[in-house]
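re the bet — no i am not wrong, look at it urself. input seq straight from the record:
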Amino acid sequence: MNKNLGKIDRSLRVLVGLAIILYGVMSSSLLGLIGMVPLLTGVIGWCPLYCPLKINTCSQKECSTK
C-alpha cells in the first residue's frame, strides 16, 4: 500500500474529520462516525478511492521510502 496523499491533503482530511466528529458529538448524532473516514485516511496517508481514479497528491519527495 503506497501512500497517495500529500501533506496538504492529509492535513485537510484530519481537520475535516475532526470537525465532523466534533459536530457529531455536540449534536448527539451518528454523523460523527462519518468523520472517521477522512480522519483515518489522513492519518495513514492512503485513500482507497484515489487508486481506481489514479489520483496521487503525494510528491515524489514526500512519498519516497527511506
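see?? The mean pLDDT is 92. told u. also DSSP finds four helices and no strands in the chain. so pay up
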